[in-house]
Specification:
alpha/beta, Rossmann fold, 2 domains, 12 helices, 12 strands, globular
């Protein structure tokens, strides 16, 4: 079985920081295959219509199609890219971010959809997509050591999902987070950055007067070395479609035994609520974020204990790889 891995996402500004890149690498280590990247620009372009992605690579795709048994498309959302109609072999289509209810069933009859959460699987089934599977993303949990940390006085949170565009300063909640930090003198932040809009980030931090409580790391670092220094992870999203259903930084936080704060728009919030290993932000507002952080601090002994117990048990990379193997075999049998 030979697989062509087709990536439609923008290339990372900083190598080694993009979750889809890590997943494709992990799968290629287990299944024979090639890879092609279809995003037409070196940096993300706001409002780029999905329909144009891959058009510049049609001839190359048609050539590669004759050399493989199966295609595996990675996409931020469920988009019916025009290039799909040129693929003669079976297609597995992984949706990284949250599903939307506007998809049309008849456009996906010959494609096996993979989603990352039960919330998204329910949506896929509700609109009549029969060939759909739930596979949670996986990480190398062996890299993380559970590191308990008492919370008394200052609370330190790690943010590791930097914006791709200027608009994502709001969509990913950085503007909200800085406003709340300005109101909470005992809150410290560690931010892992990707290089894009670094000057804007520093300007916003300075504007809110929180520079002495924010550490920005604008280079590639091993997140497993940072997590022992913080009380938990935090990730925000104004919509369901701008972040992965299960963000890597949240899985990594739990693998290190650290509870998290997460927006309810992100499907992983259901998991966090069910297992009591963090706090869910009800809506994208200063008030809701402030309330969630206060709950995190107040309930830290309990949610920290739960995070230590859960760790990375549900996010093992091998489980993800094996699950995709089953989907590949199912797609080839149709």
């Amino acid at each position: 079985m030979k697989v062509l891995y087709i990536n439609t996402a923008p290339p990372p500004n900083m190598p080694g920081t993009e979750a889809i890149e890590k997943e494709i690498l992990a799968l290629r280590e287990s299944y024979d295959g090639d890879r092609i990247d279809l995003y037409p620009f070196k940096r993300p372009v706001p409002y780029l219509p999905p329909q144009v992605i891959g058009l510049q690579s049609i001839f190359r795709l048609k050539k590669l199609d004759s050399q493989v048994d199966l295609h595996h498309v990675f996409s931020p959302g469920l988009y019916r890219y025009p290039f799909l109609r040129f693929l003669r072999h079976p297609v597995v289509f992984s949706v990284a971010a949250g599903m939307h209810t506007g998809a049309q069933r008849n456009k996906w009859l010959k494609i096996h959809i993979v989603v990352g959460s039960q919330r998204d699987l329910d949506i896929a089934q509700s609109i009549g997509i029969d060939s759909a599977s739930l596979i949670r993303p996986g990480i190398d949990t062996s890299l993380f050591v559970k590191s308990p940390m008492r919370l008394s006085g200052e609370c330190t949170l790690l943010s590791a999902s930097a914006p791709w565009t200027l608009g994502q300063f709001n969509d990913k909640g950085f503007n909200l987070l800085f406003r709340v930090a300005a109101q909470m003198p005992d809150l410290r932040l560690v931010i892992l950055w990707r290089g894009l809009f670094y000057d804007v980030l520093l300007e916003n931090i300075e504007k809110m007067g929180i520079g002495d409580r924010v550490t920005v790391i604008n280079e590639y670092v091993d997140i497993s070395a940072i997590l022992p220094q913080v009380h938990g992870g935090i990730i925000l999203a104004s919509r369901h479609d701008i972040l992965r259903a299960f963000p890597h930084s949240m899985m990594e936080s739990l693998a290190a035994g650290k509870p998290v704060i997460i927006s309810g728009t992100i499907p992983m919030a259901d998991y966090i609520h069910r297992h009591g290993c963090g706090c869910v932000i009800e809506n994208h507002s200063v008030e809701s974020l402030g309330t969630a952080i206060q709950q995190f601090i107040r309930n830290y002994p309990a949610i920290s204990r739960n995070a230590m117990e859960i760790g990375g048990r549900d996010f093992d990379k091998k489980r993800m790889i094996d699950a995709y193997g089953e989907v590949y075999r199912e797609a080839l049998s149709l």
